What we know:
Layout: E1 4-7, E2 10-13, H1 24-28, E3 31-39, E4 42-43, H2 46-59, H3 68-81, E5 87-94, E6 111-118, H4 125-129, E7 131-137, H5 152-163, E8 168-172, E9 178-181, E10 185-189, E11 195-197, H6 208-219, E12 224-226, H7 231-235, E13 239-244, E14 248-255, E15 258-259, H8 267-287
Parallel strand pairs: 7-8, 7-14, 11-12
Antiparallel strand pairs: 1-2, 1-6, 3-4, 3-5, 5-6, 8-9, 10-11, 10-13, 13-14, 14-15
Amino acid sequence: MARIAYVNGRYVRRDMGVVSIDDRGYQFAEGVYEVIWVQKGNLVDLEHHLDRLGCSLESLNIPWPMGRPALKVVVGEVARRNLIGNGHVYIQATRGVARRTHLVPEDTPSSLVVTASREGFRDARVHEQGVAVITIPDIRWKRCDIKSIALLPNILGKQKASREKAFDAWQVNGHDIITEGTTTNAWIVAHSGEVITHPANRSILSGITRRVVMELAAGEGLDVCERPFTVAEACGAKEAFMTSTTNYVVPVVSIDGHKVGDGRPGPVTSGLYKRYLAHMAGEQEGEGE
């Protein structure tokens, strides 16, 4: 079956989708995106993702490519036409098509592409055994809270992590503070039991899974704290983990070759992973109500 994409007002075969070479996303990386997980046909935390999309668009003064209700219809239709049971939907909105110059006419209509992909093979060992991360300098711009398509530093970091047989690279600012991973938010569990993640300011992208996990952890009576933490504090933590839309909650058992805790996924991380799976299942059940 041919894969279907939505491209600027039309549903087309994905391999036939075309955008202009003068699109500002292509020329200047002037655009934003969202990745929404689909679980058993349900769009998980859709409203949260659209809220963040709106914030990113507003921060760049890019108009919504269509109204929010209409976009929800398109996202659902793309998932339906691609028979997505488990997988994700990708939304990309750019400034639109204009002559290549740093100034762009204010009435330029924005561009919209929506695609969907089925879930690939998920290695259960990631959650059962945990993963290694490395640290790298955070060389990104100062508006990491915008989910921009300009991801070159993240890509370079992810490639470095792969070459070093690590799952991800945690980025470190000039004060030795871990901000976040290239594709994940970073967390540690202190020996006091405190669950810590970097504050949701302009230094990180406030992940939707991060937000949900914070709520789940608080609901379990855990002491959740948004504050900066150093590389040394992370290496000496009782547990560490990371969160993202596509990987949920992943235990981190090694940082730069240093064992975290006893080198195995800890009870807090494992418990939050199970609670997040239950959250996704609950979203599915709620869809039919």
